[in-house]
Amino acid sequence: MSLHTLADGTTIPLPPMPKPTPPSDVMGATETGYDVRAVVVVQVALTRDMLAVALEDGCSGVEEHPDTWSVEFIRESVELYVGQAGYMRLLEGENLLVDFLWSEPAGPCRDRVQAVYRAIDRAYPNGR
User: Fold this and answer.
1) Which residue in 65, 76, 81, 122 is deepest, having the highest Cβ count within 10 Å?
2) Strand duo 11-13 + 3-5: pairing
3) pLDDT tens for each residue of 58-112
4) pTM over 0.70, yes/no
5) Would you say 94 and 53 are in contact if contact means Cβ atoms under 8 Å apart?
6) For residue 3, what are the β-bridge partners?
7) pLDDT of residue 38
8) How far apart are CA 76 and CA 27, in angstroms?
9) Whether 5 contacts 18, CB under 8 Å
């Protein structure tokens, strides 16, 4: 069982979570010349919609269709976006993306977002 530590040092249990997906890479000060002090691992619990926001926003300039993206590319892209944009941006974007799917008529934009969701389902299967 995972625990959350309060400021006074006491702990409270967290609800059950899926097993964490191992990180695909180390990001940040990875180039030669940096005096790296630590590699910090941050686990962020994300909904399917948040994962889709991270992938869509992080790969908006990628011309290849999301149905052709590898699981490795999808995971690396999600991790990079979450590391750069943070959890709060995902919360904001989650509702916007869901609203978009409900309001956007059929066409290339809607097709791409639906393909992004399929990519998320390949890289992060339910119940993992």
Assistant:
1) 81
2) antiparallel
3) 999 999 999 999 999 999 999 999 998 888 888 888 888 888 888 888 888 889 9
4) yes
5) yes
6) 13
7) 86
8) 10
9) no
For 4-30, the pLDDT digits (tens) are 898 999 999 888 888 888 888 888 888
Contact 50, 91 (CB under 8 A): yes
Cβ(55)–Cβ(119) below 8 Å: yes
Tokens standing for 20? 């964490």
Amino acid letter, residue 27 = M
Identify the bridge partners of residue 13 per DSSP, sorted by sequence position. 3
The single-letter code of the amino acid at 9 is G
Say how far apart CA 19 and CA 99 lie, in whole Å.
29
CA 20/CA 76 separation, integer angstroms: 14
Tokens of 34: 């940096």
The pairs formed by 33-37 with CB atoms below 8 angstroms and a separation of 24 or more are none
Q: Name the DSSP letter for residue 46.
A: -
